[in-house]
TrEMBL record:
One of its GO terms (biological process) is carbohydrate metabolic process. Its cofactor is Mg(2+). One of its GO terms (cellular component) is cytosol. Coiled coil: none annotated. This is phosphoglucomutase (alpha-D-glucose-1,6-bisphosphate-dependent). It comes from the Bacteria. It catalyses: alpha-D-glucose 1-phosphate = alpha-D-glucose 6-phosphate. SUPFAM superfamilies: Phosphoglucomutase, C-terminal domain, Phosphoglucomutase, first 3 domains.
């Protein structure tokens, strides 16, 4: 029997999971006892762990391997019978969800700070996913946080580090550690959902794509699925080797950070299709030749075309989107005669709808798209769905999206982020907004019809989440939303979401920054953004 050691500790402030787990600077995580306190708080909050199986892996960022060795020792002390670890400590977030569901584990621990940069001076993160495969709901994250405030000791088994790169089973005490191929189960699941034969035929016909793995976790998945199984030309996958610092980049698949890909998709000779994924493989960005598809439009196009894909031929039960995501998907749902749910930001809010069979596809403006095949958003799945649609329709990305706008109208949309502003200034700005008497007033020629702080009652379990973003809805259907990000690690990030419906096809081609110029000005003025934050312009526009 291995020796279980009890280590005395004291609580750390601030171990409160945010939008998606606990994200902090590496310098915070490497403090003695910091990671251990949080992991013990998880184990103490999720029920009896004795004899159970846990999935474990991460996006390969700096500190991933060290954290895995620590968590394994603690899992052994908590009585887990088995831990399934992706080889090399690698497991994308959607693949983790897939493995948790397939092997019916007692949930999993995913080590990632998603799209945040990695390295000794950058970010690390950890989250617990429940046995259904999705991020822990608020009731559990609150319990973990509460435990972290009272914790006095944690337990671990004293043992040597294990070799994370060797497939097979080893033991820590009596606990089995299975090092498994992190790609195989996920790739097998994808083969059941999308038409691999049709996509192979598309590539064989000369269709060209670039996939930017951004030196993050999706490299091995994309090499296997796109190049080996689907026959895309070697070199289709760019930046395909996971690196602890993501090659010094910011693994965030948007126009600002995936610049290599954006450059590769520019010009008449460029590939037909481009896509990128983020640190942990759950986000995606979709590009055509000289054409950017917003995440909100991507969700709507995939919803309208899903029956072309084998996993969705029976149609969709419903669609769910986060509140700040544009209403493009709502128009598709209305036409299909299915419900469209509006949830707070955070993939965890989709879990109950998916479990209850109320929604089949989900999406967020923050480059997240997914379905009921797992309980996380899934970057590569979205890319494969697009490839399936392209293979069946044999039209360009731009033609598919513009035809979609002609049919449904365009929800012209943009998000403006003000990153790294003073927390007090950000909170002051939100308080200022909350105090405004806006309903019925006119702002720059538009009348405000609804003004509130979004609150959500889960239609399945009745749980209530409040203060999820300030909404200014206008009578003409335009809207402005203000939120503070729940995923940053430094200061505060103000997100301003601006949207306006355009029915006239002759105006569909306008750059959103031009089409939305008046609404953007209203949004800035109303929140006194420059006066309160000192920022005249946003840091990132998506
Ligand atoms: C996480 C959540 C998403 C959310 C995004 C942005 O994604 O899972 O649901 O939309 O953060 O959140 P915020 O606006 O609060 O920064 P990821 O990819 O970072 O895990």
């Amino acid at each position: 029997m291995a020796h279980v050691k009890t280590v005395v500790t004291t609580p750390f402030a601030g171990q409160k999971p945010g939008t998606s787990g606990l994200r902090k600077k590496v310098s915070v995580f490497i403090q003695p006892h910091y990671l251990e306190n949080f992991v013990q708080s998880v184990f103490d909050s999720i029920g009896n762990t004795v004899g159970k199986t846990l999935a474990l892996g991460g996006d390969g960022r700096y500190f991933n391997r060290t954290a895995i060795q620590t968590i394994l020792r603690m899992a052994a002390a908590a009585g887990f019978a088995r831990v399934m670890v992706g080889r090399g400590g690698i497991l994308s977030t959607p693949a983790a969800s897939c493995v948790i569901r397939k092997y019916k584990t007692f949930g999993g621990i995913i080590l990632s700070a998603s799209h945040n940069p990695g390295g000794p001076d950058e970010d690390f993160g950890i989250k617990y996913n429940i046995p259904a495969g999705g991020p822990a709901p608020e009731a559990i994250t609150e319990a973990i946080y509460a435990r972290s405030l009272t914790i006095q000791s944690y337990k671990l088994v004293e043992s040597d580090d294990i070799d994370l790169d060797q497939l097979g089973t080893v033991r820590i005490g009596t606990m089995e550690v299975d090092i498994f191929d992190p790609v195989a189960d996920y790739a097998a699941l994808m083969e059941t959902l999308v038409d691999f034969a049709a996509i192979r035929a598309l590539f064989a016909s000369g269709f060209k794509m670039r996939f930017d793995a951004m030196h993050a976790v999706t490299g091995p998945y994309a090499h296997e699925i796109l190049e080996r199984r689907l026959g895309a030309a070697p070199g289709t996958v760019m930046n395909g080797i996971p690196l602890e610092d993501f090659g010094g980049g910011h693994p965030d698949p948007n126009l600002a950070h995936a610049h290599d890909l954006v450059a590769a998709l520019s010009g008449p000779e460029s590939p037909d299709f481009g896509a990128a994924s983020d640190g942990d493989g759950d986000r995606n960005m979709i590009l055509g030749r000289d054409f950017y598809v917003t995440p909100s439009d991507s969700l709507a196009v995939l919803a309208a075309n899903a029956p072309l894909c084998p996993g969705y031929t029976r149609g969709l039960a419903g669609i769910a989107r986060s509140m700040p995501t544009s209403a493009a998907a709502d128009r598709v749902a209305a036409k299909l005669g299915i419900p469209c749910y509006e949830t707070p930001t955070g993939w965890k809010f989709f879990g109950t709808l998916l479990d209850a069979g109320k929604a089949t596809l989900c999406g967020e403006e923050s480059f997240g798209t997914g379905s009921d095949h797992v309980r996380e958003k899934d970057g590569l799945w979205a890319v494969l769905m697009w490839l399936n649609v392209l293979a069946r329709r044999r039209e360009s990305v731009a033609d598919i999206v513009t035809a979609h706008w002609r049919e449904f109208g365009r929800n012209v949309y943009s998000r403006h982020d003000y990153e790294g502003i003073e927390t007090a200034a950000a909170e002051g700005l939100m308080d200022h907004l909350r105090g405004l008497p806006l309903v019925g007033t006119e702002l720059d020629g538009r009348t405000v019809s609804v003004f509130d702080d979004f609150a959500y009652t889960d239609p399945v379990d009745g749980s209530v989440s409040t203060k999820q973003g300030i909404r200014v809805l206008f009578e003409d259907g335009a809207r402005i939303v203000y939120r503070l990000s729940g995923t940053g690690t430094q200061g505060a990030t103000l997100r301003v979401y601006i949207e306006q419906y355009e029915a006239d096809p002759s105006r569909h081609g306008l750059d959103p920054q031009v089409a939305l110029v008046d609404l953007i000005a209203t949004a800035r003025r109303l929140a006194q953004i420059e006066d309160r934050t000192g920022r005249a312009e946003p840091t990132v526009i998506t």
